[in-house]
Amino acid sequence: MTDPDMSLRLHNTLSRRLEPFEPLDPDRVGVYACGPTIYGHAHIGNFRTFVFYDLVHRTLEWLGYGVHFVMNLTDVDDKTIAAAAREGLNLERYTAPFAESIMEEADALGIRRFDLYPRATAYIDRMIELVQTLLDRGLAYRTDDGSVYFDISAFPDYGALSGKDLEQGRQGERVAADEYEKDDARDFALWKASKAGDEDVGAAWDAPWGRGRPGWHLECSAMSLAEVGETLDLHLGGEDLIFPHHEDEIAQSEGATGRPFVRTWLHVRHLRVEGEKMSKSLGNVVTVRELMEEGISPAAIRHQLLSAHYRSELNFTREGLEASARAITRLVDFADRLASSAAEGPGGDDLREAVERARIRFREAMLDDLNVQEAMASLFIFMREANPLVQHSGSAARADAIAFLESTNEVLGLLALGRESRVVDPELEAWVEARVRERDEARAARDWERADALRDELEARGVRLEDGPSGTRWTWSGAGIAAG
């Protein structure tokens, strides 16, 4: 077993190895996360990434770091412009509802608010300044139509993050390579000369080299430099952003500042749905909004999104959601049992030992590259070990166990969300209470046939009973589904 006080280690995409996390200033860890392009409702794959961002945010704070966390919202690029044009709306009016819905769904999933959510269109002046700096340093060039491109031949370290062979070209570029004039097909746009469609939706601005709009890659550099600083402790994003987006961010940011742009890069792997890649053509694009409208609890969704290590592919399934709902029920029920137990006295050494083992395992897992899968396993192993010990443990030992659960909630966000997700119809709750009292009376009268019939009736309605020295305790067997 490794030292529980070891430092946080993270897998840096740039170095391709685990490294101790060493922020420039522990009192202000600067984090920038690439957020969504707000041209439509975010899908479950987006939210796998956002929940990971939340895990990073929570873990850093849990470890005692001061954190300044920024996630951008991309509101101007080819996709937002095209979508706004189809709807006949200006860019701001088109994108605003999607930004709002993303925040609402993030709140529902227990994602803590970050410090700032900058939108690209609010940083146009910064972007123009950044382009001018790159021009002045000979790292960019202008074309006759008023566009500006980054000259990657002037940046020798280009390709270090992705390991791409530049001679193979820039496959995977977000916009068509031949749409704009440039000296080399591998160069990327910093500023794009405006077109009729841009003007129609209000996506064009004046610049010294011509009217136009920023390149997608430029936007994140301008926002992160402005709001986090010239060197970021952490930069987060999906694995699809490594090339070309993050590669281009490095080139233009370091080209402008002359300083290392990011100390540690973390990238999240893709999500699959029922074993298949999520795509519109397959008709398997799933949104958080749709799942919640079906009655799936946010706690179950969050649990499944956390169920795989961020560098492993996650298979999001209906069966997995059902298992996650059961896991959340077990967690909340166990916490409730700890809080409501009537045991008193000094007993509880076995429970305290189980707590300490779980605390060490949980911490080790989170320090080991945010291994949330192992961390959650340690939590549920603890619950299995501790469950038979609760009724024999005194209040001090139970308080220690409750403190451990609350500590895991600071990182995982599951316990609080599970409690919030339990929506019970008051009339049905009153019916259950009445049936439980009737069963207790039948048991007291030794009318076992009637008591068993009442138990069967309750179980058929999703109620689980637990008989103990202090009486009968009941819980719902499902998590977060309105019992009505």
Structure description:
- It contains 16 helices and 15 strands.
- It has 484 residues and is of the alpha/beta class.
- It folds into three domains: 21-277, 3-Layer(aba) Sandwich (Rossmann fold); 296-421, Isoleucyl-tRNA Synthetase, Domain 1 (Orthogonal Bundle); 426-476, no CATH class.
- Strands 4-3-9-10 form a four-stranded parallel sheet, sandwiched between helices.
Report the CATH architecture of the largest domain.
Answer: 3-Layer(aba) Sandwich
- Mind describing the biggest β-sheet? 4 strands, parallel
In the sheet with the most strands, the strands line up as 4-3-9-10
Task: Please state the CA-atom Rg, rounded to the nearest Å.
Answer: 27 Å
Beta content = 5-15%
The percent of residues in helical segments reads: 40-55%
What would you call the structural class? alpha/beta
Blueprint of the fold:
Elements: E1 9-12, E2 17-20, E3 29-33, H1 44-62, E4 67-71, H2 78-87, H3 91-108, H4 124-136, E5 140-142, E6 148-150, E7 188-193, H5 196-200, E8 212-214, H6 216-227, E9 232-238, H7 242-257, E10 262-268, E11 271-273, E12 276-277, H8 288-293, H9 298-305, E13 314-316, H10 318-340, H11 349-367, H12 372-386, H13 395-412, H14 414-421, H15 426-444, H16 448-460, E14 463-468, E15 471-476
Parallel strand pairs: 3-4, 3-9, 9-10, 11-13
Antiparallel strand pairs: 1-2, 5-6, 6-7, 7-8, 11-12, 14-15
Helix pairs in contact: 1-13, 2-3, 4-6, 6-7, 9-10, 9-14, 10-14, 11-12, 11-13, 15-16
